[in-house]
Each structure stands twice: as C-alpha cells, then as structure tokens.
C-alpha cells in the first residue's frame, strides 16, 4: 500500500498548491492507494468550511485529519458529526463533536486512520498515549496511519517510539516546518516529526512576516494575514506491507513554486 500525506493546508495558497501538485505527484510516484491531508488551517488559516471540504475531496483526497484549529469555524462543527472522513483529534473529551479515528475501505484495501493531539505547550486534552492504546484495542486494520498534531518534538518522538510496531505510519503536524528525520523505527513504523506545511513559505509558518511581527515586538493582539509567496506542497509518501502493516519506505516531498 502506498499512502500520500500532505502537511497542514494553510489558506488559499495551500489549497491551490494541493490542487496544482497532487496530479504531478501521482504521475511521478504512481497511483496512491490512499491520500490524506491535514485540513485544520484550510479556511484562511483558521479552521474549515463545508464548501472547502467538498472541493478538497473532489480532487481525490480520501481522508482529512486536523488539530486544535478545527473548531475555529463554528459552523463547521456540525459537519464533523456527519462526515466521518474528516477527523478531529481523538483525545478530546467524550461528547466532543466528530470522531478521531476510522477504518476506510478503497478498492479492496483497508486503512485505519487515527488523529491525536499533543499536550505539551497546548490546550489540555486527554492523554494521547492512552487514547491510542484504547483505539488500537478495537481497531481492525493491519495498516494504520497516525497524524499526531503536537508542538513538542520530544512528545512526537516519544509517541512514535511508544506506538512502534503497532501502527504503520506516524506523521507529526502542527509546527508547519518539515523535519529531516524520516526513518523506519525498529518495529516497522514509518516516522517523521513534522510533515511540513502546504501553503505559502515566504513568511512565518503560513502567515506574512509583516502581519506577524507586531506580536513579537509588542506582545499585543494583531490580525495575521495569509502568506502567498513560495507556495509549496509538503508531506510524505509511505509504502507499507498490506499483510503485516510494517512500513518499508518513507520519503518526504516539498514541491511547488519556490520563487
């Protein structure tokens, strides 16, 4: 099984980068059995809308994961209850809208997907380690992909080692900076600390330098503006044995217009 995962889509530049680069990636690497993207910043950098969700599914995305910003557009929250292909982090308290994991079937192949959120330097949520344990006890899938939406590098690495051999891929998201540590862990799990960002890379993690700078200079609230320069699509492609669930390759990509 070959899986493509694209890091956090940030605003219109990210959506355009996804549309423009997905087909060339398919031509270069062959068809993908499943295509997954993190969508939590797709609507102007904060949250998601139903219209944008439909547009992203229409270009061939199979599943969307998210993170703490999935709640930013309140009108989208009811959509999480009826669209099982859009996940929110599974370790939010019981009763939260939506679901954090699922098993998906496509062309006779089965993929489990789990979305988790970190706790270090982020809002309080339930333990991602114990939440993963509970999900894996009931999930019936040989191949399992995990999007761990977390701030701290150490927390991501720790969860990767904790789940090694029990999931096929663990890809970190949230920091919008692609890391250079793709590897296959000893138990057969493909790992990267952060898959990167699909959006404009000419500013500060998807926003323009000019709009972000006052926050650091003065510490006062300011409105962030989406960065449009250097639109890139970033992520990873992983190859997994369908029967054992063990990964045998993971490679990162960064494609687009680096003007």
Q: Which key phrases capture this entry?
A:
259 residues, alpha/beta, Purple Acid Phosphatase, chain A, domain 2, seven-stranded mixed sheet, 6 helices, globular
What is shown here, in short?
This protein is α/β, with parallel strands linked by helices. The protein contains six helices and 13 strands. The longest helix is centred in the first third of the chain and has 19 residues.
Give the secondary structure arrangement, pairings included.
Elements: E1 2-6, E2 8-9, H1 11-29, E3 34-38, H2 50-58, E4 63-65, H3 77-82, E5 101-106, E6 109-117, H4 128-138, E7 144-149, H5 153-163, E8 169-173, E9 183-184, E10 190-192, E11 197-200, H6 209-218, E12 231-240, E13 247-256
Parallel strand pairs: 1-3, 2-11, 3-4, 6-7, 7-8, 8-10
Antiparallel strand pairs: 1-12, 5-6, 9-10, 11-12, 12-13
């Amino acid at each position: 099984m070959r899986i493509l995962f694209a890091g956090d889509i940030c605003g219109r530049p990210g959506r355009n980068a996804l549309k423009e680069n997905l087909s060339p990636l398919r031509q270069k690497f062959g068809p993908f059995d499943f295509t997954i993207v993190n969508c939590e910043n797709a609507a102007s950098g904060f949250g998601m809308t139903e219209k944008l969700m439909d547009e992203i599914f229409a270009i061939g995305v199979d599943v969307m994961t998210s993170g703490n910003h999935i709640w930013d557009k309140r009108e989208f929250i009811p959509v999480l209850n009826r669209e099982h292909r859009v996940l929110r982090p599974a370790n939010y308290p019981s009763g939260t809208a939506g679901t954090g994991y699922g098993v998906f079937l496509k062309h006779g192949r089965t993929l489990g997907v789990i979305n988790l959120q970190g706790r270090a330097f982020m809002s309080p949520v339930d333990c991602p380690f114990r939440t993963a344990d509970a999900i894996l006890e009931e999930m019936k899938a040989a191949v399992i992909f995990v999007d761990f939406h977390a701030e701290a590098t150490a927390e991501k690495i720790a969860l990767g080692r904790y789940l090694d051999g029990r999931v096929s891929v663990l890809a970190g998201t949230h920091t919008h900076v692609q890391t250079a540590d793709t590897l296959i862990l000893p138990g057969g799990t493909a790992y990267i600390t952060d898959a990167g960002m699909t959006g404009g890379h000419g500013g500060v993690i998807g926003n323009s330098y000019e709009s972000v700078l006052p926050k650091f200079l003065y510490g006062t609230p300011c409105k962030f503006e989406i960065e449009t320069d250097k639109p890139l699509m970033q992520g990873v492609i992983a190859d997994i044995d369908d029967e054992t669930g063990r990964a045998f390759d993971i490679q990162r990509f960064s494609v687009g217009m680096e003007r």
